[in-house]
Amino acid sequence: MKSEILIIGGGIMGLATAIALKMRGCNVTILSRDFQAAATYAAAGMLAPEAEQVQGAMRELCLRSRCLYPEWISKLEEITGINSGYWACGILVPVYQGQGEQKSHLSGNWLDKQTIHQYQSGLGQDVIGGYWYPEDAQVDNRRLAEVLFAAAQSLGVELKENVTVEGIQQRQGQVIAVQTNHGVICAEHYILATGAWSNELLPLPVRPRKGQMLSVIVPEYLPELPLNRVLFGEEIYIVPRRDKKIIIGATVEDVGFTPNNTPIGIESLLQKAIRLFPELKDYAIAQMWWGYRPATPDELPILGESPLKNLTFATGHHRNGILLAPITSVLIADLITGGKFDPILENFHYSRFQSPNQSSTSTPMFTNSANFNHVTNGNGNNPIENLGKQPFNQNEHINKGKQPAPTLEPIPDSPLVIAGKTFKSRLMTGTGKYRSIEEMQQSVIASGCEIVTVAVRRVQTNAPGHEGLAQALDWDKIWMLPNTAGCKTAEEAIRVARLGREMAKLLGQEDNNFIKLEVIPDAKYLLPDPIGTLQAAEQLVKEGFAVLPYINADPMLAKHLEDVGCATVMPLAAPIGSGQGLKTTANIQIIIENSKIPVVVDAGIGAPSQAAEAMEMGADALLINSAIALAVNSSAMAYAMNLAAIAGRMAYLAGRMPIKDYAIASSPLTGTVN
Question: From the Swiss-Prot or TrEMBL record, what is one GO molecular function term (predicted)?
Answer without folding.
Answer: thiazole synthase activity
